[in-house]
Amino acid sequence: MYTLRASITSVAAYVPPHKLTNAMLENMVDTSDEWIVSRTGIHERRILKEKNLATSDMGAEAVNEILVKRGIKGSEIDLLICATVTPDMPFPATANLICHKSGLINAFSYDLGAACSGFLFALETGRRFVESGQYKKVIVVGADTMSSIIDYSDRNTCIIFGDGAGAVLLEPSEDQSLGIQDSILKTDGSGVEYLRQKAGGSLQPASKETVDKKMHCVYQEGKHVFKFAVSNMASVCSEILENNNLSGDDVDWLVPHQANLRIIEATRKRANIAPEKVMINIHKYGNTTAGTIPICLAEWESKLKKGDKLILTSFGGGFTWGSTYLVWAY
Ligand code: COA
Asked: How far apart are CA 122 and CA 113, in angstroms?
């Protein structure tokens, strides 16, 4: 049994300035603002447009802000884990590049891939390093440049995704009532059928054919993903409440993965949490994959109080899904 808890002690996010609005998408594919808003809740997303910038640059922006806010040096960080499905390149890890850009000279680092659940999977991993007592300052980043793998002639996918990054600092807390209390994470590899990037890996290495057929872009069967997400995200959210003897009324904030407003609403209703307790910014950023949850935390940071009970929940490609219960520590 661990005697330490891992607490979030700082949070920051970065989204690029360029906006891709529904009106702009109307000029690119056969769609409408009305269709997108009613089916997803999304009005616009941010796109990393500048050449020579990539996922690590957005991640480094968030990490730099954390260092400044917490008043610490990069050299004090022991470990950085970056959750992403859009690394700068297959190797080295984007986490290593973030460390290099942010001066984390003493940290070891690696990437973790669990698509839209990546942040929660990385948070659970980081938590265990802190609880071991050996690592005092661990940064968990969720960052994705989805625009780099989107086919902007495919109306099924291009309306959903955006770019962005968020990061949290985890530190040990001896007060057991604060920090990450519980986590349930799940995967089901049969989901590969419905949501994946077909080429670019060892199964289908890059070739002229894979590029011509746009096999490096996100492939999604939206209806299947939707059904899966609605039932599983809601279930895992209810499960974590039950395991911790919490009712919807006990929860101060629900922090759901921002994939679709209807999925968020179904999860909220099933968990019986009041609408005003739900963090929602999907209208501004769309689905930033591993970025959504830490971006929400950063946006709501000023409203969060020490002792607030938060339920984080996600689902994504893989399939992957999960929920984390944590108590805000500052
Ligand atoms: N604009 C207008 N029409 C569109 C469209 C668009 N951007 N995208 C699809 N359509 C059409 C479809 O072609 C279909 O037409 P058809 O009936 O003539 O074949 C019709 O709209 C209905 O499509 P459907 O897929 O049933 O819509 P939906 O209500 O399921 O909404 C999604 C589509 C993608 C918004 C929804 O399925 C979804 O959000 N799925 C989950 C996606 C997700 O969260 N992915 C990330 C995982 S982390």
From this structure: 9
